[in-house]
Design a protein that fits this description.
By secondary structure, the protein is mainly α. 71% of the residues lie in helices and 5% in strands. It folds into two domains: 88 residues, RNA polymerase sigma factor, region 2, helix turn helix motif (Rna Polymerase Sigma Factor, Chain: A, Orthogonal Bundle); 72 residues, Orthogonal Bundle (Arc Repressor Mutant, subunit A). Helix 3 packs across helix 4 and helix 6 packs across helix 8. It starts with a helix and ends in a 5-residue tail after the last helix.
Length: 184
């Protein structure tokens, strides 16, 4: 499959085209992020977010630009957003030139937060049960059993890129269920 054909098919929501694009460009985007973040987990998370955002916005892609460049631009912007969020979490404060310290914001949950989280978890579990079984399974393996993509790939006997795409799809479907009005 040619890249231009894959983009056209992806715009028509053909899953194989998404898989092809992910397989073709995953290493480029991941290597770009690994160089920037110097952290495999962050690089992988940002790369997944990059493809998720790109696939969601595939209809806005302008063919006069190189597709890889478009992906790298999305990836770069996601990384910048991540860095900005981290800077908000840890404020760098100084009283004078010699006395520097970091003020760390306490994000630990209050007892009220715990109650809300428990209630939300019960609702989340009900929403997950609305997904098809193979999507339930991949959500369970990744977020409840906290398996790596490699471990999930071995557990399901599927290529790692398929696991990543399936997880992206599962998360998108779950988000639609959660945000649907009158969902219970």
């Amino acid at each position: 499959m040619e890249i231009t054909d894959a983009i056209t098919k992806a715009k028509n929501n053909e899953q194989l085209a998404f898989n092809f694009l992910l397989d073709t460009f995953w290493n480029d985007v991941y290597a770009f992020q690994l160089k920037r973040t110097q952290n495999e987990n962050d690089a992988e998370d940002i790369t997944i977010q990059t493809f998720s955002k790109a696939f969601d916005k595939i209809n806005t892609y302008d063919a006069s630009y190189n597709f890889k460049t478009w992906l790298i631009t999305i990836s770069k912007n996601l990384h910048i957003d991540l860095v900005r969020k981290q800077r908000k979490t840890i404020k760098n404060t100084s009283k004078d030139n010699q006395d520097h310290f970091l003020e760390i914001i306490d994000d630990s949950p209050t007892p009220e937060d715990k109650i809300i989280t428990d209630q939300n978890l019960a609702k989340l579990l009900r929403d997950i049960k609305k997904l098809k079984p193979h999507y339930q399974e991949i959500i369970n393996l990744r977020y409840f059993q906290e398996l790596s993509y490699k471990d999930i790939s071995e557990e399901l006997n599927e290529p790692m890129n398929n696991v990543k795409v399936k997880l992206l799809r599962a998360k998108k479907l779950l988000a639609e269920i959660i945000t649907k009005p009158n969902a219970s």
